[in-house]
Amino acid sequence: MTARVGVVTFPGSLDDRDAARAVRISGAEPVSLWHGDADLKGVDAVVLPGGFSYGDYLRCGAIARFAPIMSELVPAARSGALPVLGICNGFQILCESHLLPGALTRNSSRHFICRDQTLRIEATTTAWTNGYAPGQEVVIPLKSGEGSYVAEAATLDELERDGRIVARYVGTAPNGSQRGIAGITNEHGNVVGLMPHPEHAVEALTGPSVDGLGFFTSLLSHLASGSPVGAGAR
Amino acid sequence: MPEEPRFDTVAKAESTPDTPQPFAELGMKEDEYDRVRDILGRRPTSAELAIYSVMWSEHCSYKSSKVHLRQFGEKAPESDALLVGMGENAGVVDVGDGYAVTFKIESHNHPSYVEPHQGAATGVGGIVRDILTMGARPVAVMDALRFGPADAPDTRRVLPGVVSGISFYGNCLGLPNIGGEIGFDAGYAGNPLVNALCVGVMRHEDIKLAQAPGPGNKVVLFGATTGPDGIGGASVLASATFDEESHAKRPSVQVGDPFLEKLLIECSLELFAKDLVVGIQDLGAAGVSCATTELAAGGTGGMRIELDRVPLRDPRLTPEEILMSESQERMMAIVAPDRLDEFMATCAKWDILASVIGEVTDVTPEEAERGGRLVMTWRGETIVDMPPRTASDEGPVYERPYARPAEQDDLQADDAARLERPRTDAELREQALRLLGAPGIADPSWVTSQYDRYVLGNTVLATPHDGGMIRITDEGDRGVALATDGNGRYTRLDPYTGTQLAYAEAYRNVAVTGARPLAVTNCLNFGSPEDPAVMWQFAESTRGLADACRQLGTPVTGGNVSFYNQTGSTAINPTPVIGVLGVIDDVNQRLTSAFGRDLEGARVFLLGETRVELGGSAWADVIHGHLGGLPPRVDLAAEAALGELLADAADQGAVAAAHDLSDGGLVVALAESCLRGGVGCSVELSGDPFVELFSESAARAVVVVRPEAESVFAQLCDRHGVAATAIGSVGGSGLAVRHSDGGFDIPLEELRAVYESALPAIFDAE
């Protein structure tokens, strides 16, 4: 049976149709979810797409956290049952929702940055990255103004120790992220937050590579295996 | 006895005919004011005066340019592609398979000088609403920018502000920024140019027009509340030359909210899809005044508005201020009464405020004859009762005097051929690098990396390639390509030829992507129309564009005129920015300007003919600070042939890369293509190496031909009559130039360092 992957549209979501396209290209069926409906429509996984939910007013992701859809999503994600990928603004929403630790802050350059970014995939046992080889380098667009990952030193140590750093920027982090962090996962490995945009690297014609497709095909392998995910490459 | 209202009413206007009115302060000439009195048969109320003053401003009425712009229609080539022509919010062209594309470029120059961030941001917002208003989903934006010298202190205020404004607004709207240009010249120091282009896609049957038919239909204002921002912007800010006082006008620049605009786009598209509107107009310059008069004029001619129903951000606003406010993110729709509930529910879904403020009315034949009847009330009193067409369509038209200035001869006689040329290979090399590091030629990434070029997932080509390209649907392979160009130096030397060169370059930039040019938009940036020399430049420029469009079969679909671009009595170089849109059947066949590593060994051909043409060139400017002589010759037939050749070559897969030659000539083009692909190339020049490398002759491009397709390519060149010279091949670790007398080499790393460091060195410096 075809996997059904929900893509949530908040007011101000921008990459929702792109996430749906990536889901479709990977072979799954995208399902539109509306921020105002507390209904996950029985999907197998959810993508929180990029954009500026609620205009990013107050703080990126801070208002989206309280959307009705999140009341359904957060418990399912926290239990480890529901795979969730938060991309860019979606990553910010996951942090604001305390599904992931830390926060995303203004780029060190203070400018929005759009560039083709090389990443190193580190944790390869998550629901969204099991198709990559540990240490594999991929090129995926980064496009954000508030992508600098920060957390307390103890949290960063814990993330490193538990193998929960999903991806790091190769070379100097363009946005000033601590320890070069581009993406992290929760202790179950079902929730992944990633600052760069894998959904914009799924077609050779429109992206810098097709390296991003692996996030979506990894999910399908994960769903097909039926096995629980685990964080880290321990 | 009832108390006399404290605001001006029609009744009061009738009883106090001699009350002095501040028409001059509102930018109206005395004869214009007298004409308003004639139309109304009495003095206007202050609300009517507000409407006429903004609708008859240069910005809204095109009163100085209209007589020249008519040529775009009169000389328009026969084109089956044109679905909606000039006069609507934007032109619409057929791109095949039932799809239509609408595109337009518009200026926001003056506000961007006063308040760069908000000025540029709201420039993007305004053009996006124009495209949305046609019924299309906006799919991409581009910007043509001109600033003072890059290292001038004020440029470091204006440029980062403009870029952050475009970045903030466009990124937050989720529209990819796929190209444009950036240029620097001392003339723009007190008068930057910020021209924003937007393109949208729709099905043929989805085209919407600004009209208000059907008496009884409701007039609905939706989107943002109305505040005091931008009051007088249209008539005062956009139509007056800068002087000392402009710094006191800061609050009159509008403030943008891209989040609200994003919701407005999604909400409007849903309203269109559900067929809930019969007419639509965005609120831009002149706000409610413009939307009501234009909608009424496009319909029965009759409309009744209760101005008290306009939701306000500031309850102290007067009716005149409400009429003139340019608060952003507002739209006005005409809605059938039986669809109103569904309309309001859709707005509520998107958290968009919507208010019925009036309705369409019938007019008597006598009223229709006068230009319709628009009535507005405030606190129950009639404050406007006027024929709307007299404001929207029948504004003043000026035949401004124009004359070729005497100094034009001296300027053209000051030939660039007299300039000292590089004599040695070391000098050639050094001057090539100086050009590559000049701010107007160097890597624009400092600017363009602040723009999202990926969102929506259909960007096939974006900066730094010559043209941007968008796939128009997920289901098919059809795409459109767009480029804008304008060279104020060429246009200064010869406005007719310079404008045709701008058009030719944009045409060529579309052609090198493999797309076929189809239609044109333009943003004409000039000084004061009251200066006969400027008016001559304008007349020559429009004549040049109209003639060129007729010859190459690409109709002008719309555009924008920006006058009064000057500081004191000094006008900017005349800068018509021309946008060309092309169509490609299969985006997979598109060409890029990069010499890729996979092309090593493939031969590089120079297409077109190189003459000694240095007048207005980047070389003359960067090396000698010189502007004089004549610009390069225009050969439109050669441009068309080159375009046909490139489209066929792309279609047949004969060419692997193509890059147009423009600023800086061959040497800059080769360096850019090498840097974009990360591989070198070597060329052997047969003529004078300086001329071969730096001349800016038009109708030229460099291409890399696929080795297996050289004979096909040769046949295509023959068929289209394009001269093709094999000048070298792709490969090596740098740019290697050889000529009969020697040569020089520049390693890629050195090219890259010069090219990439120029703008950061200026704009990242503390």
From TrEMBL, chain A:
Q: In which pathway does it act?
A: Purine metabolism; IMP biosynthesis via de novo pathway; 5-amino-1-(5-phospho-D-ribosyl)imidazole from N(2)-formyl-N(1)-(5-phospho-D-ribosyl)glycinamide: step 1/2
Domain of life according to the entry = Bacteria
Which UniProt keyword terms apply here? ATP-binding, Cytoplasm, Glutamine amidotransferase, Hydrolase, Ligase, Nucleotide-binding, Purine biosynthesis
One term of GO molecular function:
ATP binding
Enumerate the Gene Ontology biological process terms.
'de novo' IMP biosynthetic process
Cellular component GO terms, alphabetical: cytoplasm
Cited CDD domains: GATase1_FGAR_AT
Q: Known catalysed reaction(s)? A: N(2)-formyl-N(1)-(5-phospho-beta-D-ribosyl)glycinamide + L-glutamine + ATP + H2O = 2-formamido-N(1)-(5-O-phospho-beta-D-ribosyl)acetamidine + L-glutamate + ADP + phosphate + H(+); L-glutamine + H2O = L-glutamate + NH4(+)
The EC number(s) given in the record are 6.3.5.3, 3.5.1.2
Q: Which SMART domains match?
A: GATase_5 (SM01211)
- Which PANTHER family does UniProt cross-reference here? PHOSPHORIBOSYLFORMYLGLYCINAMIDINE SYNTHASE SUBUNIT PURQ (PTHR47552)
Tell me the function of this protein: Part of the phosphoribosylformylglycinamidine synthase complex involved in the purines biosynthetic pathway. Catalyzes the ATP-dependent conversion of formylglycinamide ribonucleotide (FGAR) and glutamine to yield formylglycinamidine ribonucleotide (FGAM) and glutamate. The FGAM synthase complex is composed of three subunits. PurQ produces an ammonia molecule by converting glutamine to glutamate. PurL transfers the ammonia molecule to FGAR to form FGAM in an ATP-dependent manner.
Q: How does it assemble?
A: Part of the FGAM synthase complex composed of 1 PurL, 1 PurQ and 2 PurS subunits.
Name of this chain's protein? Phosphoribosylformylglycinamidine synthase subunit PurQ
UniProtKB/TrEMBL annotation, chain B:
Q: Which positions does UniProt annotate for substrate binding?
A: 107-110, 129, 254, 326-328, 562
Q: Write down the species.
A: Marinactinospora thermotolerans DSM 45154
Q: Where is the PurM-like C-terminal domain?
A: 214-363, 600-734
InterPro entries in UniProt? PRibForGlyAmidine_synth_PurL, PurL_linker, PurM-like_C_dom, PurM-like_C_sf, PurM-like_N, PurM-like_N_sf
Which residue intervals make up region (Disordered)? 1-24
The name of this protein is Phosphoribosylformylglycinamidine synthase subunit PurL
Q: Which residues form a coiled coil?
A: none
Q: What keywords would UniProt list here?
A: ATP-binding, Cytoplasm, Ligase, Magnesium, Metal-binding, Nucleotide-binding, Purine biosynthesis
State where Mg(2+) 2 binds: 130, 282
Q: Which domain of life is it from?
A: Bacteria
Q: Tell me its EC number(s), please.
A: 6.3.5.3
Q: Which family does it belong to?
A: Belongs to the FGAMS family.
State any GO CC term. cytoplasm
